[in-house]
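Practice record 12: protein with beta-D-glucopyranose.
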Amino acid sequence: MKTKSTLLTTAILLAAGAMQAQSLQLNADNVEEILKAMTLEEKATLCVGKSSQGAVGANANADDMIGMHADLVPGAAGMTQAIPRLGIPATVMTDGPAGVRINPTRPNISETFYATGFPVGTALACTWNQELVEEVGKSIGNEVLEYGCDILLAPGMNIHRSPLCGRNFEYYSEDPVVTGKTAAAYVRGIQSQGVGTSIKHFAGNSQENNRTEVDEIIDQRALREIYLKGFEIAVKESDPWTVMSSYNRLNGIWTQADRELLTTILRDEWGFRGIVVTDWTGQRNTADQIHAGNDLMAPGMVEQTQEIIDKVKSGELKIEDVDACVRRILQHIVRCPRFRGYNFSNKPDLKAHAAVTRQSATEGMVLLKNNNGTLPLKDVKKVSVFGVTSYNFIAGGTGSGDVNKAYTVSLMEGLNNAGFEVNKDLANIYTNYIAFQHAKADATAPAGFPEMFKSYLYARYNVETPIERAVIDNQANASDIAFITIGRQAGEGQDRKEADDFNMTEIERQLLQDVCDAFHKVGKRVVVILNMGNVMETASWKGMPDAILLAWQPGQEGGNSVADVLTGKANPSGKLTMTWPVSLMDIPSTKNFPGAESSSSGMMSFFRGNAPKKFWDYTPHAEGINVGYRYFNTYGVEVSYPFGYGLSYTTFAYSRPVVKATKEGFEASITVTNIGAVEGKEAVELYVAAPAGGLQKPAQELKAYAKTRSLMPGESQTLTMKVSTYELASFNEAESQWEAAAGQYIVKFGASVEDIRASAIYKLAKPYFLKVNDVLKPSRSQFAGK
Ligand code: BGC
């Protein structure tokens, strides 16, 4: 029997213990102590995001899948859970690549929370300007911080394997170096604001159709050189706080449960020190995910927390694996603004950021054609503006990559703002048509359909409308020039199709023909503006107009940005980061990419037949490393516009190519001189052709690039780029090693992959080898070789 005094002592000890636990609060230096103090339940809680209001995964509706959290920051995609006992705050994750994606309004308050809609990823990459991308990142990062978020779920950096991928607009390029360098610049910019990023979707998320189930079959060489390389560069050059593991399987295993991918490669080989977050999936095999090194389940389900607890208790999951994830999450949380107690304003400087997006968008635009100096516009006052999207300009794509921006400047508004007289009769035809179409769309919407999702609804109704020839003839007489905008919208959950999307529609073709015919007859010019986030067919029609400006989806200031380029206020210096083929069938991956048939299954459809379906249940990347210019350039296949191509209003000369050996590899420099009449910037692309004797390689591969400052006529600048021997190497699957053959490497300075202006030689005296882990074999998949 216990005496009174032992009872008292026990009580005092318990109280002291409780006080100690209470006083133990997370700080940057006591992560291990906190870890020791945590119960299994608390550890499991920290590894699972705070579930949003509904089901996720296979039973999800669109809101859950693209994130709609009501807590802390309404509309943010997800959160980590708080453990107040240990001073661990909840943190907030928000989409996405083109700016902060949160709800613009909140119930019962008049204040608004619009974020700036920046140019889509593809447009940013086409600037070939890493400093500019970093500056844009700073503005986006500032909005993340000032809207009370901790992590931006961006950048998207999957490879443009096919122009049909519905999310290419969020991604950067067909080339891993452009992808990696652009992502690294973006991450550095955002993280300079004291908030984090999530480079996504790691890895091999090449298609949207059946993205949560499809097994992407990719050989080890293509993985190492193409699909993983961009992530490797971004991890090594920018230290992202988080990586998002993708929805798909990769060579038979969910990327989210793949220890070879998330631990062996990402952490052991590349030195990643942040956390891995799943893409917004439901419950899978949580124990395998934790074991793989996937720290956080997002958006999170209570069932996942329970599964971790149960499986640790049953011995199926080691507590050491859980601890490794929890430790990393704690180390992550102490970096977050919410942990620092940052007093966010909810008032980022939207005006200043509008100026940033207006200017950066002009630099990503690519002038594809400019016959007889059609652009910049001269002696033009009255303009005829054709095309539905001229009045309904597309700022960005749909899905989680969309931003709830306060406005989008249309091309018509941009031209008006720049002082042109936009023909009112024609404008009325289009604006009435658009109003009519939107009324039709509204009629299909269920009661209470959220305003912010109307753009999805309208997208289907924004189809081109025929314009009578007599109307066009009148316009040709009344105006000095014609603009035709061709628009394309795409987004998450569904891939594009060839007919009426990659290819022109019949109505568009007729409009282009009639407008060119009518305007050319009276000696007037026609300019086509491409307002899209992806590639379309151009070879069959590009001969018709006088100029073609690829404006991409340029963000909320779109119409102003286009007008800046048309008038010459900004000299275009964007270049293509992907090949524009003559036809879709010319691209090797087309033979192994879902076609229209599976697209028709629709967004978020989880239909599966009985027998495994190719391109649905599994997709072979049979073309291996023959992605983009690596294929076209090596095999001499004609393209419509090559990788790296883009015109300017001025002309540049390249001189004094120099290559100097360094300890790591070489340093290459080139002098660029503006020999034209107007100020402008030039991006120089550095390609390398390897000597024979080693692995079979593409004819040449991009290894680095740099861009001049704005050079005045007559002015020169010398650009210097570094390349290491490791970066020259290719992957030998049989030996599981990187290899670079000894011999002469031709270092080429190009204005595009087909326009090499100068070259020099680099001699590698000894062959180079670097052994790495023999992992991610296609043979892990039941579909290997099928
Ligand atoms: C997308 C991610 C996004 C997440 C959260 C997913 O459906 O694939 O890119 O970050 O939703 O909204």
